[in-house]
Write a structure and sequence with these properties.
The complex is a heterotetramer of chains A (538), B (299), C (207) and D (97). Chain A is mainly alpha-helical. Chain A is globular. Chain B folds into three domains: 77 residues, Helix Hairpins (Orthogonal Bundle); 107 residues, Sandwich (Immunoglobulin-like), CATH 2.60.40.420; 92 residues, Cytochrome Bc1 Complex, Chain D, domain 2 (Orthogonal Bundle), CATH 1.10.760.10. Helices cover 34% and strands 24% of the residues of chain B. Chain B is built from six helices and 14 strands. Chain B starts with 6 loop residues before the first helix and ends with a helix. Helices cover 79% and strands 0% of the residues of chain C. Chain C contains seven helices and no strands. Chain C is elongated and about 70 Å long. The termini of chain C are far apart. The chains are: A mainly alpha (538), B alpha+beta (299), C mainly alpha (207), D mainly alpha (97). At the A-B interface, helix 3, helix 8, helix 9, helix 10 and helix 11 of A face helix 1, strand 1, helix 2, strand 8 and strand 10 of B. The structure holds heme-A (HEA) (2 copies), dinuclear copper ion and copper (II) ion. The site of one heme-A (HEA) has 33 residues of chain A, from helix 2, helix 3, helix 13 and helix 15.
């Protein structure tokens, strides 16, 4: 641990004033701009989620009209997907830590990086602008399925343009990361000496780069269709709504791995640090990221098993869906094996990482159920899918996001949070989360369709359990966020390397100086996680 | 006995995967928690660097692969029979439109709910008049999207007497969650008498019959309350604000306006209501005048 | 404050290889953007092959051929302009770039007349005659306008990009040693050509 | 970066001959389609093959792909492979419906 008492200027203090933030070229500041916006949108989206749960507490009308409910879940989905979860880990922690992990001082194209943030901001304005302009936010579901999305009078155009702009922002982030990884690794660091988070970002970036344009053009077609009044998916001119679904999912399935892979990268960082030993199966984890990214392109059809797709196509998509589960399971087993013979320091970030594994298991295994043709015929578009998607996205990526926040908090702010409060928030969050979403899986098996404003009386009990869970979840999240907020302002000073990590970001000061490193960072001998204090295995 | 011929296959694939899932979930979680205690910093102050093991990697690649292939297989086995209906299946047309199901039988009978004979293959030919819907019978474990412009179908055999819910499982707009109906499985002879029952519309206003048939009442009420569209109560002669080409104007609703509205639903929009929802229905001039005739009687 | 240490692998250094790689990656996204449209085209053509055939007779093959030649030629001139720049011949390089821009302009003018003719016949989506066409032909013209329109947009962007390079060469920010901007403009322009190479047979030559 | 860049400067002659090939191929494809109308499906196939040959020439010579490091070719192949896979899967759905 370097205890450097020489005064230095942190990146916070290097320049002053709001302008210096909004036009910054420093990757760390861009990351923080993203962080604050993303947390804001998460809170907006989450509040909409709470509203839905309140409405669903009883069958029949409780607080909003059906039309409003439909707008709420659409806006909830759009915010959570495009404004929160897709940018969450790459744009915040990727931006902040990729250069640090690689031992460089910025991403390859700092200007482009700022530009992606601005695109993100513009996209966000469009998404929220639907609240004010036109006939309110879209009421189509986040999937914007034609032809309903073409017929409805709500402001679909603006929501779709928002998604388009946000997609562009995501493409540019991906592009930036790929070039950064290819060109800016510190001398001596080959691909196989890169930390696993960098690997996962590399895989993610390729998905962002190659899948996003497809949805871009698809959404443009929806816009054109609404503007000219006729279009490519309109059945009355021979168009095919099922083709729209193909185009949509060609992007949106790979997109779920944009959400999941960086989260897996985080977990692969946290576990070795807290087990104080090298990661088990470095190459298996690294290459399985690439495998997931690659196979992930070929399974989009599993969202369309009931859409009228042909039997042979369903057959192939189903088999490929199952194959994509294999590289994920390889990762899970390697993580567990990394705990074996470690010297485990049970601390908040590790708890989040392990909770990620637990939740993601439930999410992933329910995903397998969805992938089976017969089962999916029954479960498609029911609450089972809603349960699945929250388990993987919130229980998985969401937990990893909060885990990363707790892991790197001392590095970003140079302060330490109150661990007792953090652990309490964690425990209640885990419990509340499961009470909130497990009932949805049961409801789905019982046959309750999703996007339902009202439901049959037999579904009441589990809906009420779920709503109660949502209250626990809110409370614990508020505690979690307030705790971090307080710590950032007046927490105790944290050491430069509080967890004893050996990846390069821990070799600089907390918070890092403007140029990240003031001397050449040293790559650990024998792999990025080869802890010098641990016994070697033979 | 299962409610339909598909229940067994679907449930088997579902519970087969769930069982394996529970095994892995419990197993992995237990091992994780055990390691957490066994190798905590207190109990095991010095860690051991283990780089990995290709034997293990291969084991935990191959075993899940075999398991998922099994899962795939049972999924396919349960699904395959859904693809092709037997030739002797009885065909019924199922029409989905915003927010109503209609079932048309070969003899011209049409009904809001589905009634089928027991133990007989039924083939539903699915037609959508507007947007996507999905005909979902949870008890039968069966679901198929209804796509405008495409002739898709689904088939099944009702194997147990009783009444089961039909739900719409594909989001289709405002009242998606109210697009409900039911399927009743009855004895064969009971079905035949039901099918032969003629619907007696002779003392009903022809306009009303037409409007029921076209599902006007899923959006419009006759008692003055607001649903999706304006109520028909006292429409004729009502003065209201409409929006044409983005400009507001005040008109008095009369027969001509209604006729125009039915022929070109998108040409105008009543202020305060969502535009774009009122469907364009293939109505002849005669039918339109019947409808107008009836609408004028709703006071 | 006063540390003088700088990493050798800095994101703020000029790195020609990085910017070329960035450009290529960007081209991939462009390819897949059009790729999405090609997928839609493929499906609809499969479902309506007769109608597509009939509709394609309403396009003018010779105008299309002329435009193809224009784009190929401009592709050559821009490639040559990079060679000229690398060899230090700035004036030739600028001239070749101007020729490229002129070709782009020519392309757009021909397109303008083609589109104009279609407008006159009311073939633009939403127009009177369009609404009376059989469904397959409507899809064809919808795709025609969408795809050539988007391509036209790329032609404009490419031309503007090249103008920036010309300015750079004149001002001295693009030089025989530091030519990656001109290289990237060239790559972009070739992509525009590449897409047209497929658009041309798919719309004009289904005979 | 400090490492030595190995710059390849393509010659004017190479560009010119590529151009010539492209023009010839263009006229060939027009010829086949306008005068070989009876061939029908065959002409679609030829048109696409010719287009692909042209595209390869543009990529290889005009865009210098030939002289780039291997990684560029791998990336390009991946992208195209991906796209072809999309085409195959969607076609599969439509032809087996
Ligand atoms: C972070 C996002 C994320 C992730 C990672 C996943 C991962 C997976 N998803 Fe999920 N999915 C979504 C987000 C995600 N999904 C969303 C948002 C939707 C709904 C979209 C909408 O309609 O709105 C959806 C919907 C969805 C469907 C469509 C359901 C329907 O609408 O009918 C299907 C169907 O196959 C599916 C499957 C899978 C599978 C097989 C995986 C796999 O990758 C999971 C792999 C993981 C594991 C398998 C667990 C770990 C493995 C082990 C512990 C080893 C033991 C396991 C074996 C024996 C193999 N998902
Ligand atoms: C990352 C993604 C994500 C996350 C985190 C969430 C979080 C939540 N979602 Fe989400 N959800 C989706 C993504 C997500 N959702 C998607 C993609 C859909 C599909 C949409 C569609 O069908 O088109 C969906 C659909 C969906 C439905 C189904 C709607 C339907 O089909 O009818 C429901 C229903 O209960 C629901 C509920 C919730 C709830 C209660 C939360 C809660 O967990 C939220 C918990 C968080 C909090 C409670 C935050 C606490 C803080 C505050 C409340 C603010 C306090 C204020 C300050 C301190 C300033 N969601
Ligand atoms: Cu009909 Cu939902
Ligand atoms: Cu998916």
């Amino acid at each position: 641990m370097t205890v450097d008492t020489l005064p230095y200027t942190t990146f916070y203090k290097a320049k002053k004033g709001i302008i210096s933030w909004l036009f910054t070229l420093d990757h760390k500041r861009v990351a923080l701009l993203y962080l604050y916006s993303i947390i804001t949108f998460f809170l907006v989206g989450a509040s909409l989620g709470i509203l839905m749960r309140l409405e669903l507490f009883h069958p029949g009308k409780d607080i909003v009209e059906p039309h409003t409910y439909n707008q709420i879940f659409t806006l909830h989905g759009v915010i959570m997907i495009f404004l929160f979860i897709i940018p969450s880990i790459p744009a915040v922690f990727g931006n902040f830590f990729l250069p640090l992990l690689l031992g460089t001082d910025d991403v390859a194209f700092p200007r482009l990086n700022l530009f992606s943030f601005w695109l993100y901001a513009i996209g966000a304005l469009f998404a929220l602008g639907t609240l004010v302009f036109g006939d309110g936010p879209a009421d189509t579901g986040w999937t914007f399925y034609a032809p309903y999305s073409v017929r409805t009078g709500t402001n679909v155009t603006m929501s779709v343009v928002a998604a388009f702009v946000l997609g562009f922002s995501s493409i540019l982030t991906g592009l930036n990361f790929i070039v950064t990884i290819h060109r800016l690794r510190t001398p001596g660091m080959g691909f196989n000496q890169m930390p696993l988070f960098a690997w996962s970002l590399y895989a993610t970036s390729w998905i962002q780069l190659l899948a996003t344009p497809v949805i871009g053009i698809t959404l443009l077609m929806i816009v054109a269709e609404r503007v000219f009044g006729v279009g490519l998916f309109d059945p009355s001119i021979g168009g095919d709504p099922v083709l729209y679904q193909h185009m949509f999912w060609i992007y949106s399935h790979p997109a779920v791995y944009i959400m999941a892979l960086p989260a897996m990268g985080i977990v692969s960082e946290i576990i070795p640090t807290f087990a104080q030993r090298t990661i088990f199966g470095y190459k298996a984890i690294a290459y399985s990221s690439m495998a997931i990214a690659f196979i992930g392109y070929f399974v989009w059809g599993h969202h369309m098993f009931t859409s009228g797709m042909s039997g042979p196509a369903a057959y192939i998509f189903s088999i490929l869906t199952f194959l994509v589960a294999i590289p994920t399971s390889i990762k899970v087993f390697n993580w567990i094996a990394t705990l074996y013979k470690g010297s485990i320091n049970i601390d908040t970030p590790l708890l989040f990482a392990l909770a990620f594994i637990f939740n993601f298991l439930i999410g992933g295994l329910t995903g397998l159920v969805n992938g089976a043709l017969a089962a999916d015929i029954h479960l498609h578009d029911t609450y089972f899918v809603v349960g699945h998607l929250h388990y993987v996205m919130f229980g998985g990526t969401g937990f990893a996001f909060f885990g990363a926040l707790h892991y790197w908090f001392p590095k970003i702010w140079g302060k330490m949070y109150n661990k007792k409060v953090a652990n309490t928030a964690f425990a209640t969050l885990l419990i509340g989360f499961n009470i909130l979403y497990f009932p949805m899986i049961i409801l789905g098996i019982m046959g309750m369709p999703r996007r339902y404003y009202d439901y049959l009386p037999e579904f009441t009990f589990w809906n009420q359990v779920s709503t109660v869970g949502s209250w626990i979840t809110v409370s614990s999240l508020i505690v979690l966020i307030v705790n971090l907020f307080v710590a950032a302002r007046k927490g105790k000073k944290a050491p430069d390397n509080p967890w004893g990590g050996i990846t390069l970001e821990w070799q600089t000061k907390s918070p890092p100086p403007l140029e990240n490193f003031d001397k050449m960072p040293k790559i650990p001998e024998g792999g990025p996680y080869n802890y010098p204090n641990a016994k070697s295995s033979n | 006995m299962y409610a339909s011929n598909f229940v067994e296959g679907v449930d088997f694939s579902l519970y087969f995967i769930l069982a394996i899932s529970v095994f892995f979930l419990v197993g992995i979680t237990a091992v994780m928690i055990y390691f957490l205690f066994r190798y905590s910093k207190k109990r095991n102050p010095v860690a051991t660097n283990i780089e990995g093991s290709w034997t293990l990697e291969i084991i935990w690649t191959v075993v899940p692969t075999i398991l998922v292939l099994l899962m795939f297989w049972y999924g396919w086995v349960g699904y395959r029979p859904m693809l092709t209906a037997p030739d002797d299946a009885m065909e019924i047309q199922a029409v989905g439109q915003m927010w109503k199901w209609t079932f048309n039988y070969d003899n011209g009978k049409s009904s809001d709910t589905l009634v089928i004979p027991i133990d007989k293959p039924i083939k539903l030919n699915l037609v959508s008049k507007d947007v996507l819907h999905s005909l979902y019978i949870p008890a039968f474990r069966l679901k198929q999207d209804v796509v405008p412009g495409k002739d898709f179908s689904m088939w099944f055999i009702g194997q147990k007497l009783g009444r089961y819910d039909i739900l719409c499982a594909e989001y289709c707009g405002q009242l998606h969650s109210y697009m409900l109906s039911s399927v009743t499985v009855v004895e064969n002879d009971k079905f035949n008498t039901w099918l032969a029952e003629k619907q007696d519309n002779s003392n009903e206003h022809p306009g009303l019959t037409l409007m029921k048939k076209n599902a006007c009442f899923s959006c419009h009420t006759t008692d003055g309350s607001r649903l999706v569209g304006p109520s028909f109560k006292g429409v004729v002669g009502r003065s209201e604000t409409i929006i044409v080409d983005g400009k507001e104007k005040t008109i008095t609703v009369d027969a001509d306006f209604i006729k125009h509205k039915l022929q070109n639903p998108l040409s105008s929009n009543v202020k305060g209501f969502q535009s774009g929802l009122m469907p364009k229905l293939p109505l002849s001039d005669d039918e339109i005048s019947h409808i107008i005739d009836y609408v004028s009687t709703i006071k | 404050m006063d540390h003088t240490f700088h990493l050798p692998n800095s994101g703020h250094n000029f790195d020609a290889k990085a910017s070329k790689m960035g450009m290529w990656l960007f081209l991939y996204t462009e390819l897949l953007l059009f790729g999405g449209l090609f997928l839609v085209y493929m499906v609809y053509r499969e479902l309506n092959s007769e109608a597509f055939l009939l509709a394609s007779f309403k396009l003018n093959v010779w105008m299309g051929t002329f435009n193809t030649v224009l784009l190929i030629t401009s592709s050559m001139t821009i490639a040559m302009s990079i060679t000229a720049l690398q060899k230090g011949n700035k004036i030739l390089s600028i001239r070749l770039m101007w020729i490229t821009i002129l070709a782009a302009l020519g392309f757009l003018i021909v397109k303008y007349f083609e589109w104009g003719a279609k407008f006159e016949h009311g073939l633009f989506p939403g127009m009177e005659h369009y609404q009376q066409l059989p469904t397959g032909e409507r899809l064809y013209f919808y795709l025609y306008f969408f795809m050539t329109g988007l391509h036209g947009l790329h032609v404009i962007v490419g031309a503007v990009f090249i103008m920036f390079v010309i300015r750079g060469v004149k001002k001295g920010s693009v030089t025989p040693e530091r030519y990656s901007l001109s290289e990237n403009a060239g790559l972009y322009w070739h992509l525009v050509d590449l897409i047209w190479i497929y658009l041309f047979p798919l719309f004009y030559l289904i005979h | 970066m400090s490492e030595k860049e190995n710059i390849h400067i393509s010659s004017y002659k190479e560009h010119l001959s590529t151009w010539l090939a492209l023009i010839l191929l263009t006229f060939m494809t027009v010829f086949v389609s306008v005068f070989g109308a009876e061939l029908r499906t065959l002409s679609v196939a030829t048109a696409m093959i010719i287009a692909t040959v042209k595209a390869t020439a543009v990529g290889y010579y005009f865009m210098h792909l030939k002289y780039e490091p291997k990684i560029y070719k791998i990336m390009m192949a991946t992208v195209l492979g991906l796209f072809v896979f999309f085409m195959i899967m969607i076609t599969l759905d439509y032809i087996t419906r």
